[in-house]
Fold this protein.
Amino acid sequence: MLILKNIKQLVQVNTNELVRGKEMATLNTIDNAWLCMHHGKIDSFGAMDNFPKFTEHDKVEIKDVSGKYVMPCWCDSHTHIVFAGPRHSEFVDRIKGLSYEQIAANGGGILNSALLLNQTTEEELLESAYHRLRNMIHLGTGAIEIKSGYGLTVEGELKMLRVIQQLKQMTNVIIKSNFLGAHAIPLQYKNNRQAYIDLIIDKMLPIVAEEKLADFIDVFCDRGFYTIQELEQILEAGIKYGLTPKIHANQLDNIGAVQVAVKYGAASVDHCEHITHAEIDSLLPSQTIPTLLPSAAFFLGLNYQPARFMIDSGLPIALATDYNPGSSPSGSMPFVLSLACIKLKMTPAEAINAATINSAYAMKVNNIAGSISKGKAANVFVTNKIPSLDYIPYSFTENCIEQVYIKGKLV
Ligand code: NIG
Ligand code: FE
């Protein structure tokens, strides 16, 4: 049993419902608090006035964290951390004037990553993904969704999903797996797109389901990538195999993907740079959570997501890193929070709700993560001695996180 005592403020206490609209501006906290972790779970907590009494027989380790905040770990509900190598030459191409879409249309982008991934062994992929994951944990991430989508062949997609399975065994972090066979159309299928979609539906999906390799199914439905009609086909097939949709939508244009995602009960629609009243009206009565990825907009120089408009319309918002080699080569949730505040005009409290309980919902781990609640996984972090919670997004690129506990163990 491990107890943290004299916590300056315990943050996100007993917040177990999805937080929407105006509610996002408030955080439940306890000042001058203690937190007890036992058997990998959050056992109990309270104000120091009610600090529990222990006898000498109790096996208790007590740590004093005076002046420091304790929070639930971030839930990063959208990442692509299994990839074979960086794409820094495209980064330079974009500096010189090419757009992300032009690079993709010329056979670069995701297709470049796929080429390299198919030449890379499962062991090599595992090693680099594990390294990225370890770094993310040190930045406070305690739950992560990871996608396939750089294979685009039966073998490549399965290899990626098996790497994700192995990451689950190698760490105590909460991991959800997302099958994104429909990330791009491979060049050889350019003039016969349906043949690749058939490959996804008839060859990949049955194995993914049989070997229980994924929780979610994803499609990059956008201008230049998958169409609405293709999205519907793939989601219908995935749902038959028990996968929940969680899709890339409205990053480059507005082609109606959000409405289709809602119709199919998607857990989330991610990106949402191009979102209008029509999408908001379809999202409001639904369970589908719009997930904003501001570091991708930052890196590609796109317009930022209209978070204010969305929150003021009453929507819940989730935040994630989108860590990938093409549009967001960073797994830093603290930086995402900074961008959310600085560029999306979210308040620090809104950003923290979005990056914890709401992103837990967006990856369907809200029963075990996203808040300080009895019985949830003891995935929490302790900050440095910072003057205020607002200081975390304010001091962008400064590491404010001193200790990370995953299942109650110091990492
Ligand atoms: O979420 N938008 C689609 N997929 C990724 C980028 C993939 C890549 O460029 O490698 C994203 O931004
Ligand atoms: Fe993505």
